[in-house]
Design brief:
Elements: H1 2-13, H2 46-59, H3 66-80, H4 100-106, H5 114-122, H6 128-135, E1 142-144, H7 145-154, H8 160-167, E2 179-181, H9 193-199, H10 206-209, H11 218-226, H12 228-243
Antiparallel strand pairs: 1-2
């Protein structure tokens, strides 16, 4: 569940800013972000956020936004899985709309090459090094067979035995929704094994392995693989920056009573 809450925060902030728009269900006036290609059958944890919100509302109604809850839950989930925390600024308010088109255009898909990844993160104001650090969130979580099938059957920059092991749960046809850990080494622990996997050509997603494929990000991957503390420090700083992506403040937006619908 920790990976789900971290992914929720990422997929929220990358679209309209950290405004809890990803939590909104479709309405008569807009189609929400949950059915966007990078989100559908992928995002989890909505019920956890709603449960937290319900408890907060019972004690302190109309004060704590869903956007703040998502940001804090993302941080706390990393800490719960052995990672190092970071300071989460508060005071965000919730959006009154969501955008399917923005989610489809702004969230980087797993098919991107390195230049595409760099461009997607630069669009949001992140440096190349920050992109590499944030990619380390893939040290936890799972991914669907349909997102990595092409890689394990067709790409050459992958360890052959690793590819074969993944093929057992991801056949050429069928099993699209079969899940595999993105970090098969320590899937339930927030550490830097993700980068070690890339060095060993054991990145499960095409976009992951692009970070260590002879390009400009190779050196940073090596640094994180050999210096877990540096990764934790850089990841925390990048997450602080992410949490400050275009938040709604003051009288903007609203503080939703229930996170999946407007007041």
């Amino acid at each position: 569940m920790g990976a789900s809450l971290l992914r929720l925060h990422f997929h929220d902030c990358f679209v309209q800013g950290c405004d809890a728009s990803v939590l909104l269900k479709d309405t008569a006036t807009f189609t929400g972000e949950q059915s966007a290609f990078p989100n559908v059958n992928s995002l989890r944890g909505f019920d956890v956020i709603e449960n937290i919100k319900a408890q907060v509302e019972s004690l302190c109604p109309g004060v704590v936004s869903c956007a703040d809850i998502v940001a804090v839950a993302a941080r706390d989930s990393v800490v719960a899985l052995g990672g190092i925390g970071w300071e989460v600024g508060l005071g965000r308010r919730d959006s009154t709309t969501a955008s399917l088109s923005d989610a489809n255009s702004d969230l980087p898909p797993p098919s991107l090459d390195l230049n595409g990844l760099i461009a997607a993160f630069q669009k949001k104001g992140f440096t190349v090094d920050e992109m590499v650090a944030l990619s380390g969130s893939h040290t936890i979580g799972k991914t669907r067979c349909s997102t990595f099938r092409t890689r394990i059957y067709n790409e050459s920059n992958i360890d052959p035995m690793f590819a074969k092991s993944l093929q057992e749960n991801c056949p050429l046809k069928g099993g699209d929704d079969n899940l595999s850990p993105i970090d098969t080494t320590t899937p339930n622990f927030f550490d830097s094994a993700y980068y070690t996997n890339l060095v060993n050509k054991k990145g499960i997603l095409h976009s992951d392995q692009q970070l260590f494929n002879g390009g400009s990000t190779n050196q940073k991957v090596l640094e994180y693989a050999t210096n877990p503390f540096l990764f934790s420090l850089d990841f925390g700083n990048a997450m602080i920056k992410m949490g400050n992506l275009s938040p709604l403040t003051g009288t903007q937006g609203q503080i939703r009573k229930i996170c999946n619908r407007l007041n």
